[in-house]
Design goal:
Layout lengths: L6 E9 L7 E6 L20 E4 L9 H5 L23 H5 L5 E4 L1 E2 L2 H9 L2 H7 L2 E5 L7 H13 L4 E5 L5 H7 L6 E5 L5 H8 L4 H14 L6 E7 L8 H13 L4 E5 L4 H8 L18 H12 L4 E2 L1
Parallel strand pairs: 2-6, 6-7, 7-8, 8-9, 9-10, 10-11
Antiparallel strand pairs: 1-2, 1-5, 3-4
Helix pairs in contact: 3-5
């Protein structure tokens, strides 16, 4: 397996949603899935991207004046003609309001370690640590493994959030020994629906979950928490949740995290010039009612599965 170095989108401290305690979350760019509702759309593409935030733009035209290909215009939908843009990022360099930004940073492992070191006191007092997220960290298996190994060498607790689409044997060899927790996303149980909404079938994802959950039950195994993001009209449908509950029961999983839908991904997608029927779908633009979340939870609770 070759050493493929990722771009890092962001390293975000003081996180309370990506594992136990106070955490620092490292967001990798690049994912093998293409979920139509991706909550981190700026992490889907493994390459650099240019984002424009209309709410931050002050209309000074500094970016337009330095754009040699002429890719920027107030007349363009989304401001940027991405067919002309060469990703030179001169516009981002001169933007005084940070409305134009470069998505992705080239970082060495030691740079990442030094960035998270300042948060160690918060980890110690809260039982927190570092979470690898994205995107998909396992897309860069050797880099992620080296990073995890060095984090563990300085006694930092580690967790990975994964879509599960990876080589399981390589994962066990390279990353598993340096993990304390695995948060494992399960989206759609039907393979054709999974292909339709996520770009690939789910066979490998479900097989990998079986392997990892069996390993978690052995002495020294890494705890695995399955998670399901509740997406309106897609993953939150009763037939999908009932199938997921049966799958977890068959694999003796006792807990699941159900992630309440929020529509913030739509604005992030538009910053990248990504528009689709899903970004314009009315039911995708509103927050999930608490009553519907409770209905979804009951499908698992009636089978004895605890909601985390």
């Amino acid at each position: 397996m070759e050493f493929r170095k990722p771009l890092i989108l962001d390293i975000r401290g003081n996180s309370l949603d990506d594992g136990p305690g106070i955490r620092t979350t490292i967001f990798f760019k690049g994912c093998p899935l293409s979920c139509v509702w991706c909550h981190n759309p700026e992490c889907k593409d493994a390459e650099y991207e240019l984002a424009w935030d209309s709410k931050e733009c002050i209309g000074c035209n500094s970016c337009i004046n330095v754009c040699e290909p002429g890719a920027l215009s107030r007349d363009n939908p989304g401001f940027i003609d991405r067919r002309k843009c060469t990703l030179c990022f001169k516009c981002a360099e001169v933007c005084p309001a940070n409305a134009m930004t470069k998505a992705g940073h080239d970082m060495e492992i030691e740079e990442v370690i030094e960035t998270v070191r300042k948060d160690v006191p918060f980890f110690v007092t809260s039982g927190g640590g570092v979470t690898l997220s994205g995107g998909e960290p396992t897309l860069f298996m050797r880099f992620a493994a080296d990073l995890l190994r060095k984090l563990k060498s300085v006694r930092i607790q580690t967790l990975i959030e994964t879509c599960g689409q990876f080589d399981c044997a390589a994962f066990f060899e390279l990353m598993y020994p340096y993990l304390d927790f695995i948060y494992y996303d399960i989206k759609l149980m039907d393979p054709q629906e999974h292909r339709r909404y996520c770009g690939v079938s789910n066979e490998r994802i479900l097989d990998n979950f079986r392997e990892l959950y069996r390993a978690s039950q052995r002495k020294g195994g890494v705890e695995v928490l399955p998670r399901i993001a509740l997406i309106p009209g897609i993953t939150d449908r009763r037939h999908n949740l009932e199938a997921a509950a049966c799958f977890l029961t068959e694999n003796r999983a006792e807990k699941v995290a159900l992630l309440q839908y929020n529509p913030l991904w739509i604005e992030k997608s538009k910053k990248l010039g990504v528009y689709s029927s899903y970004t314009e779908d009315a039911k995708m633009t509103t927050w999930m009612p608490l009553s519907h979340l409770k209905e979804c939870c009951s499908i698992f609770q009636t089978r004895g599965i605890v909601i985390k």
